Structure formats: structure tokens, C-alpha cells
């Protein structure tokens, strides 16, 4: 066979790969759900190792969508990330706050949320997560540890008064113990971020639900979970729940 012709074919193939790879991602794009970062406010464009990830975000060191800076900021009150004030009804207890830090680490750092990424029309991000199947124990302990903290709203995405630069309770939204606004674990995990999570009936270690907390010495358990749901998504054309 003619060598020049073969080279031309190879070049054409390489060119097609580049063009195909540059296509914008859409929810219908099923090819690449396994290891991606959402297009949001602070995410890197692609996951990669981050040796110095800080504190509770360190489990994602081997492969992360967050930068070191984001991992540090995730531990601060009213951080540069979103200017969000956890202490909007007096001090949030540390046992409760650590779950919000972990939730921030998962959101910012996880490269395993592909099947649940959706496009959105928001000024501050192009994509969000919807109905991530959070392991039931992770939701339960979040809810239990926040029992003694206070809040004034059940959806923390909208309705705040931001005039001071961080979120304050709107007038007519009274501070109550968490259980007043979140009577069940599912009410907390599903409602707080407008259904970013949908609490799973599956348990930690099942390979069928996303773990907010994990010990990285045994690898990242969410890699298996995303493989399962990406296949389910490819088969059914719908995100699994
Ligand atoms: C992270 O980066 C932002 C913006 O550059 C900066 O304001 C902030 O101080 C940095 N945080 C840390 C912990 O370095
Ligand atoms: C976003 O908003 C613009 C204008 O408001 C609209 O044209 C567009 O269809 C919206 N996109 C989505 C994904 O909702
Ligand atoms: C928002 O908070 C400011 C104080 O920071 C207050 O003066 C204002 O009345 C509040 N607005 C609403 C709509 O709650
Ligand atoms: C959830 O799990 C419990 C206990 O294993 C089971 O009884 C229940 O039927 C399950 N619910 C659903 C919706 O799968």
C-alpha cells in the first residue's frame, strides 16, 4: 500500500479526533461521563492530581476538579468561593459545619458526578448537579449532627438578603433548629441545594450511591458508582437515581 496515502489517512483520523474532542458537552453527550468536571464557578476544566489538597478535601488528591486554593477556601466561613455565611442564625456547631465543608469538597473536587451534570441558565455557572444519589448514611449523619444548629430557610440556593455582601436571613424568615426546616434527612439533603442530591436507599460501600466521606487509602469508592450509573445512563438515556 502507498505510504503517503496511509499517512494522509492517519492525519485525517488525528484531525477528526481533535475536532470531535472539541465538541461542546451537552447532557446528551454520553461518551465521557466517567471522569469530568462540571463547568461551574471554580472547577478546573479537567480533573488531575492535586498533591496539596487541604483538610477535608484531601481524599480527592489523586484526581480532583478543585484547585488547592479552592480546597483551602472550602474550610473558611464566608469564603471567597461564594461568600456564603453558615452562621446566619448564630454559630453553626462544628459537628454540623464539617458536613457542609465535606459537601463543598465533594461538589468542588469530585470528578465522579458526570451522570448528574445538567446545563443551567445561571449567571455564575453553566452547569449544575441534579439528583446525585447520596448514600443514606452520609445524609443521616449530616442531619443528626445539625440537630442542634439553627437556620431560617429550607432552600439555601435562593431567597437570601445579599445586601451586606454575604447571605442574611430575609425578613419574615425566623431562625429555628434545623429540624423545623428539615424534618427528615431527605428534606435536608434533597431540598437544601435545590435537589442537587436525591438521597439514595443504598448504603455506603454498596457501589450504588455517592459517598461524601471516604477513606482514600482504599481508593475513591465513587469511581465504581459512576461507572455503574454511566452505563445505566447510556442504556436508558436517563440519569439513574
Ligand atoms: C484563593 O484565591 C483568591 C483569588 O485569587 C484569593 O483572594 C484568596 O486569598 C486565595 N485563598 C488562599 C487560601 O490562598
Ligand atoms: C437561557 O436563557 C436564554 C435567554 O433568557 C434562553 O434563550 C435560553 O434558551 C435559555 N437556555 C436554557 C438552557 O434554558
Ligand atoms: C437586607 O438587609 C439589610 C441589612 O443588611 C436591611 O437593611 C434590609 O432591609 C434587608 N432587606 C430585605 C429585603 O430583607
Ligand atoms: C429501601 O431499603 C429498605 C431496606 O433495605 C427496603 O425495605 C425498601 O423497600 C427500600 N426502598 C426502595 C424504594 O427501594
Largest sheet: 2 strands, antiparallel
Strand content: 5-15%
Cofactors, ions, other ligands: 2-acetamido-2-deoxy-beta-D-glucopyranose
Structural class by sheet pairing and helices: mainly alpha
Query: What is the residue-mean pLDDT, rounded to a whole number?
Result: 88
Helix content percent band: 25-40%
Rg is 20 Å
How many β-strand stretches?
A: 4
Shape: globular
Provide the spatial order of strands within the biggest beta sheet: 1-2
Low-confidence stretches: 7-24
Question: Structurally, how many domains make up the residues?
Answer: 1
What is the ordering of alpha helices and beta strands?
HHHEEHEEHHH
How many helical stretches?
A: 7
Q: Kindly, what is the distance between the CA atoms of the first and last residues, rounded to a whole number of angstroms?
A: 52 Å
Description:
The radius of gyration is 20 Å and the shape is globular. Helix 3 packs antiparallel against helix 4. Helices cover 32% and strands 6% of the residues. By secondary structure, the chain is mostly helical. A hairpin with a 2-residue loop joins strand 1 and strand 2. The protein has one domain. It has 7 helices and 4 strands; from the N terminus they run αααββαββααα. About 7% of the residues have low confidence. The strands form 2 sheets. A two-stranded antiparallel sheet has the order 1-2. A two-stranded antiparallel sheet has the order 3-4. One 2-acetamido-2-deoxy-beta-D-glucopyranose binds next to strand 1. One of its GO terms (cellular component) is external side of plasma membrane. One of its GO terms (biological process) is sperm-egg recognition. It comes from Molossus molossus (Pallas' mastiff bat). One of its GO terms (molecular function) is signaling receptor activity.
Amino acid at each position: 500500500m502507498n505510504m503517503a496515502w496511509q499517512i494522509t489517512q492517519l492525519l485525517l483520523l488525528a484531525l477528526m479526533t481533535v475536532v470531535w474532542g472539541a465538541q461542546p458537552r451537552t447532557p446528551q453527550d454520553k461518551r465521557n461521563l466517567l471522569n469530568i468536571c462540571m463547568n461551574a464557578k471554580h472547577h478546573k476544566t479537567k480533573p488531575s492530581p492535586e498533591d496539596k489538597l487541604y483538610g477535608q478535601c484531601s481524599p480527592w488528591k489523586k484526581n480532583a476538579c478543585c484547585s488547592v486554593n479552592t480546597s483551602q477556601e472550602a474550610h473558611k466561613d464566608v469564603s471567597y468561593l461564594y461568600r456564603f455565611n453558615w452562621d446566619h442564625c448564630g454559630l453553626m456547631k462544628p459537628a454540623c459545619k464539617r458536613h457542609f465543608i465535606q459537601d463543598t469538597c465533594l461538589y468542588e473536587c469530585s470528578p465522579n458526578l458526570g451522570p448528574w451534570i445538567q446545563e443551567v441558565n445561571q449567571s455564575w455557572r453553566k452547569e449544575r448537579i441534579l439528583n446525585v444519589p447520596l448514600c443514606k448514611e452520609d445524609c443521616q449523619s449530616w442531619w443528626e449532627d445539625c440537630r442542634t444548629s439553627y437556620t431560617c430557610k429550607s432552600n439555601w440556593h435562593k431567597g437570601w438578603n445579599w445586601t451586606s455582601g454575604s447571605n442574611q436571613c430575609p425578613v419574615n424568615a425566623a431562625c429555628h433548629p434545623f429540624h423545623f426546616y428539615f424534618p427528615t434527612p431527605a428534606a435536608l439533603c434533597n431540598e437544601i441545594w435545590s435537589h442537587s442530591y436525591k438521597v439514595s436507599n443504598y448504603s455506603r460501600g454498596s457501589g450504588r450511591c455517592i459517598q461524601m466521606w471516604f477513606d482514600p487509602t482504599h481508593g475513591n469508592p465513587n469511581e465504581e458508582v459512576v461507572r455503574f450509573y454511566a452505563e445505566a445512563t447510556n442504556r436508558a438515556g436517563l440519569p439513574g437515581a
